[in-house]
Amino acid sequence: MNLNQRIERLFQESIATKQRCLPLLAQPIREAAEAMVQSLLGGGKVLACGNGGSAGDAQHFSSEMLNRFERERPGLPAIALTTDTPTLTSISNDYAFAEVFAKQISALGHPGDILLAISTSGNSRNVVRAVEAAEEQQMKVVILSGKGGGKLSSLRREGDIEICVESGSTARIQEVHLLIIHCLCDLIDTQLLGDAD
Ligand SMILES: O=C(CO)[C@@H](O)[C@H](O)[C@H](O)[C@H](O)COP(=O)(O)O
Ligand SMILES: [Zn+2]
């Protein structure tokens, strides 16, 4: 397969994964956006975490909340738990890497807040611990996952929302996760500001 053929295959696989996910994920995406708006209107905030590309996704989401998405509006409270190097290194060094998000959630999380937990495998230990910590803080959890959902799927409690991308490829799952994050931003703005179209 030459390079152009590889590009064509990557585009086709990404498009097919998104099309396959639409009927399966529209409802949980809507439920997640509604839960986030309910939390925000009640004075809550969204904490977001993940590793590698998913750490970038957590920050992408929080920046669109704190600043703006496509429409003019006041900033909305969200924190990516992936950005504070002194905190990340000291928790990893003094306790364990598995605790990097959980310890921040125990300090920052309040009942009614939401955790956006992002993991393509659903098995990253620090994201699993984040969900456990969020549950201790009586926070609702929105799980963005793939590959069948992994351990995160079995942690899900009543009221939590799982958005699991049906794919075994980390890259394809991440591509759908970014689309879902943009759907969440659009749906949050639509609920707060009204329909723009
Ligand atoms: O972006 C990529 C691969 O596309 C990688 O950085 C990937 O995010 C990392 O390997 C993560 O550690 C994978 O973690 P997870 O999605 O299984 O929780
Ligand atoms: Zn990636």
From TrEMBL:
UniProt keyword terms in alphabetical order: Carbohydrate metabolism, Cytoplasm, Isomerase, Metal-binding, Zinc
UniProt domain SIS: residue ranges: 36-197
Cofactor or coenzyme needed: Zn(2+)
Gene Ontology molecular function, alphabetical: carbohydrate derivative binding; D-sedoheptulose 7-phosphate isomerase activity; zinc ion binding
Signal peptide positions on this chain: none
Subcellular localization, as worded in the UniProt entry: Cytoplasm
UniProt cross-references to Pfam families, sorted A to Z: SIS_2 (PF13580)
PROSITE patterns xref list: SIS (PS51464)
Pathway stated in the Swiss-Prot or TrEMBL entry: Carbohydrate biosynthesis; D-glycero-D-manno-heptose 7-phosphate biosynthesis; D-glycero-alpha-D-manno-heptose 7-phosphate and D-glycero-beta-D-manno-heptose 7-phosphate from sedoheptulose 7-phosphate: step 1/1
Binding site for substrate: 51-53, 64, 93-94, 119-121, 124, 174
Note: The reaction produces a racemic mixture of D-glycero-alpha-D-manno-heptose 7-phosphate and D-glycero-beta-D-manno-heptose 7-phosphate.
Family matches, as PANTHER family: DNAA INITIATOR-ASSOCIATING PROTEIN DIAA, SEDOHEPTULOSE 7-PHOSPHATE ISOMERASE / DNAA INITIATOR-ASSOCIATING FACTOR FOR REPLICATION INITIATION
Function summary: Catalyzes the isomerization of sedoheptulose 7-phosphate in D-glycero-D-manno-heptose 7-phosphate.
Name of the molecule in the record: Phosphoheptose isomerase
Organism: Thiolapillus brandeum
